[in-house]
Amino acid sequence: MGSTWPTGIVPRNQSIEVRLNYNDKRHYVSLPWRPTAGNIKKAGKLRQQAQEAIKWGTFTWQEFFPDSKHANEETGAQTFKDYGQLYLNTLTCTENTKEKYTQALERFYYPNLADRLVKSIKHSELLALLGSFDFQHNKTRNNALIPLRGVFKLALRDRAIQFNPVEGIENGRHQQPEADPLLIEEIDTFLNWVERTQHPLWHNYFEYAFFSGLRPSEQIALCWDSVDFNRGYSRIERSKIKKKIRKHTKTYKVRDVEFNARSKTALLRQKQWTFLQNSEVFVHPSTGEPFTNNASPRLMWNKGLKACGIRHRNSYQTRHTFCTTALQSGAKIHWVSQQLGHASAMMTLNRLWGRAPLWRLTRTKISKRCKIGV
């Protein structure tokens, strides 16, 4: 029977040995296949293809014998943690996003998978691992899946694995949080409270927030060299996250946010305080230093809502309040979308305008009190 074996193929008790020459060296590779006639023939074809690839200089152990020790030596990064670090190094996202992905890998995956070879990790193992975590919301689980998918996608492209074990693990459904803008009476109540009880800089900060629609990270990064009183707009081209200035917005798009009567008035008042002293428009009233993050404005926001008896919502709602106020005042949806820096007017309609009908004021009354008619 030995004479019928393909060249370089030697059946063993529970495996098949493949012998081939590569880089002037004789190699012996064990395939975990039972030595049946069909498997022996299959091994012979595999060896023949490998020899042809060696001849043309295209041979890699990963492609032909991914389970061999030579394949492990050929690829520098083989463990899950190795590829986790490679994945993080290839990201072009913001530092804040990268930090979140790093935390997800360290919290959910490294304790169990760090030293495992990526090719040894199975789909069923990942399902069991994900099932062992007490995710409070599907959104948290979905976010944790992002870096996991990224790690195995990179390993697949490197041919460190033949199949992606994350494939088939779907996102869970979750409820998108609705915009929750303030009523115009609530805006007035809040701003009146700030004006009566707090430093004037807080009044300027929140009035501009309500009537410009900036993201908090954009507002604390706004500098006077981006404010053009002659042309009537603020150029939004940077943001600040965790003390770091980012020379781009969340969407990586520069936009000009036009003044209205309320936002311009707030900036003119603010100019008397910080125009000559600071490059940033808004500073902390207690220290006179630029805001490093949104923590202090958020605390003041929470304090004001409680003092005014207004139902609590997060401080991002100043942005949503601008949107609904502008639309109720007669502003065009495309203009509002551009002011907010949304990708499209449809996004503005779907995410924000749905709450506007709950407002109990007519368009004329809102326009008169907010002075945003555009």
From TrEMBL:
SUPFAM superfamilies, per database record: DNA breaking-rejoining enzymes
Keyword DNA-binding listed: yes
Superkingdom of this protein's organism: Bacteria
Domain Core-binding (CB) per the UniProt entry, residue ranges: 78-156
Keyword Translocase in record: no
Span of domain Tyr recombinase: 177-366
GO biological process, one term: DNA integration
A single MF term (Gene Ontology): DNA binding
Keywords: DNA integration, DNA recombination, DNA-binding
Family from the record: Belongs to the 'phage' integrase family.
PANTHER family: PROPHAGE INTEGRASE, PROPHAGE INTEGRASE INTS-RELATED
Annotated protein name in UniProt: Phage integrase family protein
Species per Swiss-Prot/TrEMBL record: Alteromonas naphthalenivorans
